[in-house]
Write a structure and sequence with these properties.
0% strand, 79% helix, single chain, 160 residues
């Protein structure tokens, strides 16, 4: 909400954009679910990270409500792409035998990073009174994740 406010978007409009994000996420989830049966999972995970980078970079373009709408759609697409792919990619890459343990450890990492990520973001905002440095500082993270997804070896089935 605060980022939208700094770009001239009011609270009511920002709240509507959040609802739009959820709708775009639902549609993206459906599309991603279909594509997961057709495309290598790592490509969809990388695509989600690339769209996330696009959404982050797009925040610099927001000057009007329609710019914020595009941001909401991009961010919703990101959620559908990444989260739906993660549900499928773990069993595809690691199998199901120890899936609970693997997902448990991975979820801890995701929750901790989700909880800690806003701290440096907020601190950079407090220091600079702008989100620009924070967004630019975090922009390489999805790029690194996209590269990691692309170079991840596809799973090989063991025949026992």
């Amino acid at each position: 909400m605060s980022i939208m406010n700094t770009r001239g978007i009011g609270n009511t409009e920002a709240t509507l954009i959040l609802s739009l994000t959820a709708g775009a996420g639902v549609l993206s989830t459906i599309g991603t679910g279909y594509l997961l049966d057709k495309v290598a999972n790592r490509f969809l995970l990388a695509a989600g990270q690339i769209v996330l980078m696009g959404a982050m970079a797009w925040t610099f373009a927001i000057q009007d409500l329609w710019h914020a709408v595009i941001y909401g759609i991009l961010f919703g697409m990101t959620q559908g792409l990444i989260y739906t792919t993660l549900i499928v990619i773990f069993p595809n890459y690691f199998g199901r035998k120890h899936l609970g343990t693997i997902m448990g450890v991975a979820t801890i990492g995701m929750v901790v990073s989700s909880g800690l990520g806003p701290l440096p973001f907020g601190a950079l905002y407090q220091l600079t009174e702008s989100y620009t440095i924070a967004i630019i500082s975090f922009l390489p993270l999805p790029a690194l994740c996209a590269i990691a997804a692309l170079i991840a070896s596809p799973p090989k089935r063991r025949h026992v």
